[in-house]
Write a structure and sequence with these properties.
Blueprint (H helix, E strand, L loop, with lengths): L4 E5 L18 H4 L4 E5 L16 E4 L17 E4 L9 H6 L3 E3 L2 H20 L2 H9 L1 H5 L14 E5 L3 H10 L5 E5 L5 H7 L1 E3 L2 H7 L2 E4 L13 H5 L6 E4 L8 H9 L5 E4 L19 E3 L8 H19 L16 H14 L3
Parallel strand pairs: 1-2, 1-3, 3-4, 4-5, 6-7, 6-9, 7-8, 9-10, 10-11, 11-12
Bound molecules: nicotinamide-adenine-dinucleotide (NAD).
Amino acid sequence: MAQKFRVALSGDFKKADGSPTYPDFDLAPLKSAPNVEMKIIESNNPIKGEQLEDFDALILLAHRFGKESVPASGRLAVVARFGVGYDTVDVDACTKAGIALVITQDGVRRPVAVSIITLMLALTGKLLIKDKLTREAAAGFAKRSDHMGVGLVGRTLGSVGIGNIGAETFRMAKPFDMKFIAHDPYADKQIAAELGIELVSLEDVFRRADIVSVSCPLTPETHHLVNAERLALMKPTAYFINTARGPIVDQKALTKVLQERRIAGAGLDVLEKEPPDADDPILKLDNVILAPHALCWTDQCFAGNGAADVKAVLDVQHGRVPRGVVNRAVLDHPDWKRRLAAFGKAFGGQ
Ligand SMILES: NC(=O)c1ccc[n+]([C@@H]2O[C@H](COP(=O)([O-])OP(=O)(O)OC[C@H]3O[C@@H](n4cnc5c(N)ncnc54)[C@H](O)[C@@H]3O)[C@@H](O)[C@H]2O)c1
């Protein structure tokens, strides 16, 4: 066992001029941790295995970690993604090599739930329309009463998915005195009961909710889960929100429903194609609020992602299984178990 626990940060944590890409990521706790050495590695995308030969952990921003990134030395124990998406990581390659892949659920939970609440309030409060009216001065003021907002008390908030972010959204929406419904085939029933969420069929979420929000992962099963048939079930007064992943929604079908004003509106932080084509018809609609997959980007979100990664890495250093392991199968891999036990022996007492 080496004397130091060595942590690499992917090269994209540093800009070309050497300044940090995200200054809100506080590296001090890593730098000051006993027996830890950290280094921002040279920028390569994908990361080369040779770059990681002498490291125990990698904190990974946007660069790809593929098969070729697995170091031959067998030393690397953990890849900690800065965020919760891991389409840039070859998960199988990690598992085969006994490398744990962790994501930062603790960093994004509150910021994305806040994004959903932001969109819900902006849509039902007609915030963008009222902003526009005000800028039209007297002419706009004269049209105020044509744009009545929608009160939330007793209205139904429905979610597709009640995991990390979906559950937090309901937690945050509690003071609005709404009814809560959700569909999640793998729901934690205890959490649902604690939060007063009625678990219903997918179709019932679309049929019954005044606000339908999507908070499930993008998988082959959820691709275009929100399609023309399901959108047709929505009330004409209902709003649709997607902060999860664009391809969960058949965007052509949603655009049509919005163009024909068959629902009240939509709030979208994610689109099927990002960035969208400049002539994408959804960009022209006045009943949709859009954000460039960045509504949750705040100082606290980035600080939170950084803190979660640092915690995960230091947990591994002390021989503890970190939170947010994606490839759970790795926990039974002999190489992972051997490395973790050795770290625990070397650093666990500190
Ligand atoms: N907009 C952003 O910047 C941003 C940031 C972070 C996460 N996200 C996205 O938010 C979504 C939710 O993230 P999370 O951290 O809550 O994930 P999570 O894994 O904790 O929760 C997802 C939930 O969806 C459920 N689910 C799976 N398949 C389903 C299905 N077919 N129907 C209904 N529910 C289903 C799961 O059981 C789980 O409870 C993900 O798509 C994630 O990529 C977006």
